[in-house]
Amino acid sequence: MKLSVQNLNIGKSLKLFSLTCIFASSVFSASAAQSETAYSAYMSGNYSRAVELYSAQIDINKEYAPIYYGRGLAQARLNNTQAAIDDFSAALKLDDKHADSYYARALAYAKLGNYDSASDDIEKAISIFGRNATYYYAAGTIYYHKENDDKSIECYSKALEIDPGYALAYYGRAVSYRFKEENDLASRDFAKFLEMNPTGNDIFVDEAKRMIDAIKTEKEQ
Fold first, then answer.
1. DSSP string covering 160-187, please?
2. How many CB atoms are closer than 10 A to CB 51?
3. Which of 28, 80, 104, 176 could make an SS bond with 152 (beta carbons 3.0 to 4.6 A apart)?
4. How far apart are CA 67 and CA 30, in angstroms?
């Protein structure tokens, strides 16, 4: 069995990406003046205040999907995962083509360990806007948790096709190759990840180096 932890992880105990970081990169552009204050609160890190302000706007206008989406992001930042899912679902009820709501809800489902719902949602996001490397990266990690390494590799590869500079997609694909015992491919992708992070000093870099050494040692035995 692979992993079941609070954030999406990969490897034995290695965090591949945190839901916090993903939600931070998923914020919609506050094009509506009525959402600007809540958006600013979110961007300043005052997530509780953002929830309050989005809620006030929802009281005024219950038919505007991006407000529910924004509140969902703030709820996710507060680790109110089910509340976030409820808000993303409300946004999608109003606009079933809002790809980022499917994507954000997929991550929230994954955080709860509901990878079937997560994969359904990330596939919907991809069907709406397929040229998004981040969607495919998330899909790769979700399928990794579903223990479908072939699909995981396919999704990471698609992320890299769209964005060849997506270093973590190399890392994720390397881990999936490693679980399939395709060690030459795993070592190649770990090395590519390290090449793209020459001055990195984090858990990903350390683990990539460790895995390359482990593969080399296994070959020599």
1. HHH-TT-HHHHHHHHHHHHHTT-HHHHH
2. 24
3. 176
4. 9
**H or E element at residue 20:** helix 19-24
Read off the pTM.
Answer: 0.84
- The CB-side HSE value for 210 (13 A sphere, CA atoms) comes to 10
**Cβ contacts of 127 within 8 Å, gap of 6 or more:** none
Residues 179, 159 contacting (CB under 8 angstroms): no
Three-state secondary structure call for residue 9 = strand
pLDDT (tens digit per residue) in 61-95: 999 999 999 999 999 999 999 999 999 999 999 99
Show Cβ contacts of residue 130 under 8 Å, excluding neighbours closer than 6 positions: none
Say how far apart CA 37 and CA 64 lie, in whole Å: 16
Amino acid at 42: Y
Task: With CA atoms as reference, report the closest residue to 204 among 178, 175, 180.
Answer: 175
Asked whether the beta carbons of 188 and 212 are under 8 A apart, the reply is: no
Q: Say how far apart CA 195 and CA 218 lie, in whole Å.
A: 23
Helix (H) or strand (E) holding 47: helix 47-60
